[in-house]
Amino acid sequence: MNTPPTSATEQQIAELVRRFYERALANDSLRPIFDATVTDWDTHHRVVQDFWSRTLLDTNRYRGHPYPVHAQLPLQPEHFDIWLGLFRETAREVLPADAAAQAIARAEHMAESFKAGMFSFPPYPGPKLWKPAL
């Protein structure tokens, strides 16, 4: 995704990540997911900062794929709505308007893509054991 750089700084991105996770961990619906998943917050913050640095500043610091990690979490569709609300609020507070709009658009796209991949189809029950009619 080659988008033009925004007016955000690495310091603002770090602040975005820090404040967002403060809010997420204060949320009764999101905190249990993070508590069960994240064991090293410093590393987690660095990875997320690298992701947003790539998204907003077109750096090469993040080369991963966030979907497979999130697809294995015990998430429900409403978790994405809560996450987006907290993220929008934090981005608008911390980032310049153009960077906030770009970050929010990316987060909304990711949330919709993740939900489509995680919840659009019923779980695969495995192979059907059937006998052909004679």
TrEMBL record:
Coiled-coil ranges per UniProt: none
Keyword Protease in annotation: no
UniProt keyword annotations, A-Z: Heme, Iron, Metal-binding, Transport
Annotated transmembrane regions: none
InterPro entries listed in its UniProt record: Globin-like_sf, Globin/Proto, Hemoglobin_trunc
Gene3D superfamilies attached to this UniProt entry: Globins (1.10.490.10)
Protein name: Group III truncated hemoglobin
Record organism: Methylococcus capsulatus
